[in-house]
Recover the amino acids of this structure.
RNA sequence: GUCCCCAUCGUCUAGCGGUCCAGGACUCCGCCCUUUCACGGCGGCAACGGGGGUUCGAACCCCCCUGGGGACGCCA
């Protein structure tokens, strides 16, 4: 049987970072076994499912590059199939109509809670026909009353639950629509899912699902319940911890493979290796060695991982991802040096694509103002003389290359008998408007002669005005 | 409350009975490199939750406690 995994989110919000990790594990497992990966949208909750959420999921998956071989399937399009299964269960005596009202159930629950018992349906309608035409009945699955359910979880190990802990769960609502525990079972079965990889908040559902499966005469898949991701305070990761939607990470300038790399290491490791390409992960990832313990999300390490990827990825790849952030900021990548070269220059000092986009600005457009502190510190003393000297030589330079430019800077500092910093810093501020940039020769080389000369002119004018303002 | 899951530095983790007075990574702090900012290099701080067993020997196995998380919906 070909390995088949799936990711089955419900479209009731954004694509959660925790969901992404289980999707990644599922995707990796399928890919490394030459299997299939399915995307299924669990939208049976008509009240809460929205098309916007569906789009967010699809867009998130596309951005991450987690491609699926089948789907997206929508459960709302499979209602006929679920209805058939429910009828079958009813017919064979494994399910029954329940006429208990919500109020009755609520009362039962509070009584049980008062008695410090686990709230569960008491099976009132299980054996007696209490048909009541005034209300539309739900359908309940007839869970075995005795025995235990055991399964060997691929990450948690063997888990056993007594059937006495399980009640008769609702598989069809009063309006006839199916509920989650029925639809997952039917879908995973129909779609030939061999490995169900999901959050461990589903552990408690698993025995019920296995019981339904066996009532249907189907063999259960392998289950792998991966632990939840926690926030810094140890509570389940949620909105109040900051960004939890994948798309927010895209907005913040993360590379998709970096996010994935960070997420895979949350609960899994391969020796001391921290940085993985996607291909390496497909090769090295092992479901069986995923930790059973939950782990906390650490944004600082994510930033570090992102930086590592920015530094090591192919420059054209980074450039391609950088473009949207440039456009967002009104920076035209055609109005200056080749983007790849800029990436090469900036990648060691850009932890995110946002930082890189901001840092590349002066290559493509004129900056508004000089950084006040930088100007004050560096546009004084012999700065004007330095800049004028440099400008003269730059104008005459035949070979506009980093080495030659470097030599000009050195020569100038020697002729004027100034320390290198006294030459390079004023020039840096003149060219970039700020006190920090990549090495001055590389910056000059990429900026080109025209922009260099015009910016030195501008700086000279600015310095003159500063002088006037003072006197 | 009941049931289920979990437990090594602040965080992510290595460790799978002796080679561990516990290794790596992030963060933080020093130093070095350096024309700025970075990258990088070197060094430092920092952990086996507690108690019982088992064993010649336990971070590793078992039990209890404690702590954390999850489930208990006509949500998924």
């Amino acid at each position: 049987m070909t390995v088949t995994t799936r990711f089955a989110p419900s479209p009731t919000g954004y694509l959660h970072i925790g969901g992404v990790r289980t999707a990644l594990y599922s995707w990796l497992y399928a890919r490394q076994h030459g299997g299939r990966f399915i995307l299924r949208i669990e939208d049976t909750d008509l009240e809460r499912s929205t098309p916007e959420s569906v789009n967010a999921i699809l867009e998130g998956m596309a951005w991450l590059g987690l491609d699926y071989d089948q789907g997206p399937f929508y459960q709302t399009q499979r209602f006929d199939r679920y209805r058939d299964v429910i009828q079958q269960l009813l017919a064979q005596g494994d399910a029954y109509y329940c006429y208990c009202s919500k109020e009755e159930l609520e009362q039962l629950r509070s009584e049980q809670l008062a008695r410090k018992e686990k709230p569960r349906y008491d099976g009132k309608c299980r054996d007696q026909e209490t048909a009541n035409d005034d209300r539309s009945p739900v359908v309940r699955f007839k869970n075995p009353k005795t025995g235990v359910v055991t399964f060997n979880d691929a990450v948690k190990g063997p888990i056993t639950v007594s059937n006495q802990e399980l009640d008769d769960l609702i598989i069809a609502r009063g309006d006839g629509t199916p509920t989650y525990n029925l639809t997952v079972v039917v879908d995973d079965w129909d779609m030939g899912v061999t490995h169900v990889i999901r959050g461990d908040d589903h552990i408690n559902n698993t025995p019920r699902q296995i019981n339904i499966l066996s009532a249907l005469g189907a063999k259960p898949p392998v289950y792998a319940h991966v632990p939840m991701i926690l926030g810094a305070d140890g509570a389940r990761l949620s909105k109040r911890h900051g960004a939890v939607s994948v798309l927010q990470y895209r907005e913040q300038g993360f590379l998709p493979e970096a996010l994935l790399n960070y997420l895979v290491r949350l609960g899994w490791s391969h020796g001391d290796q921290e940085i993985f390409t996607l291909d390496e992960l497909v090769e090295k990832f092992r479901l069986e060695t995923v930790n059973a313990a939950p782990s906390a999300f650490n944004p600082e390490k994510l930033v570090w991982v992102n930086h590592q990827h920015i530094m090591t990825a192919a420059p054209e790849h980074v450039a391609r991802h950088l473009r949207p952030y440039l456009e967002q900021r009104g920076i035209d990548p055609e109005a200056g040096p080749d983007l790849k070269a800029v990436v090469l220059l900036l990648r060691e000092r850009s932890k995110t694509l946002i930082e890189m986009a901001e840092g590349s600005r002066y290559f493509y457009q004129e900056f508004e103002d000089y950084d006040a502190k930088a100007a004050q510190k560096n546009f004084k003393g012999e700065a004007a003389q330095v800049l004028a000297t440099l400008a003269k030589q730059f104008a005459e330079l035949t070979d506009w290359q980093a080495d030659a430019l470097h030599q000009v800077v050195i020569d100038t500092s020697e002729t004027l008998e100034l320390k290198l910093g006294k030459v390079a810093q004023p020039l840096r501020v003149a060219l970039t408007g700020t006190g920090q940039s990549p090495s001055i020769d590389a910056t000059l080389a990429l900026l080109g002669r025209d922009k260099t000369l015009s910016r030195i002119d501008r700086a000279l004018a600015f310095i003159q005005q500063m002088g006037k303002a003072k006197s």
